Amino acid sequence: MTEALASESARLAPTQGRRRFRRPDGTRRPQGKRRRGAWALATGVVLFVSWYLLTSVFQAVSPARFPSPADAWEAAEQLATTGYAGGTLMTQAWHSVRLVLLGFVVAVGTGVPLGLLMGMSWRAERLINPTFLLLRPIPPLAWVPLAILWFGLGDGSKIFVIWFAAFVPSAINTYTGVRTLDRTLLAAARVHGASTWQMVTEVVVPGALPMIFTGLKLSLQACWTTLVAAELVGAFFGLGRVLMTAAQDVNPGMILFAMGCVALLGAVMTWMLSAIERRVMPWRPV
Description:
The chain has 286 residues and is an all-alpha fold. The chain has one domain (71-280): MetI-like (MetI-like fold), CATH 1.10.3720.10. Helices cover 76% and strands 0% of the residues. The protein has eleven helices and no strands. Helix 3 (69-80) crosses helix 11 (252-280), helix 4 runs antiparallel to helix 9 and helix 9 packs parallel to helix 10. Mean pLDDT is 85; it is low at 1-22.
């Protein structure tokens, strides 16, 4: 009896130890989350100190080529208070964020359903894929002249360019996610009499969600890179307008601060999308 109890205790010990590292819902907690945060903070401090030393103390880099922290702070104060390039920081940032959200929503609303259709129907793939392969290699910025001719210099042309840049990753990744599904699961669903709607909502979409969210993240990044480039031409507001005006005025501090705003906004929106992904797919390891 003693040996049996000892054997049972030895068997349960690893399981009990592992439970300490699980969340209340049963999923594992990221062990290195704090450590990764500490490393990220340390990297940021090292970069800032190096920037300050090279530009302000030793002056190894000319301020005309790369601004100092004081120059960037002065540009931030100007943009936040008096404004620059036709608007304050809130006006310029909100205009860019609004365009990104509109283009992203339209791209997801068209790219994901098209990817599902192409992945589930070989007829749709044969019909749509040739045109898709023909348009896919064209860079999004190559559509800027036509977009301006079609929609003018307003927001419509920029939303169209953003849509095209974000549409391709969402459609391709959704298509790939559907095509890589386990065919046994699809066959089992058909055998049990699942309708087409049940196949899509209960089998195909849940199985393809990891690839779909990968495509959404790539689409969101494409939105920001394309937006700034689109706003460099014929924009009245936005962070791209700030960058263009600062380049014309030879204002390195404003250029660097506007670039930092783009990076920060893009990172925040990507983090929000990752949070939605964790809520939708709690079983997926982070």
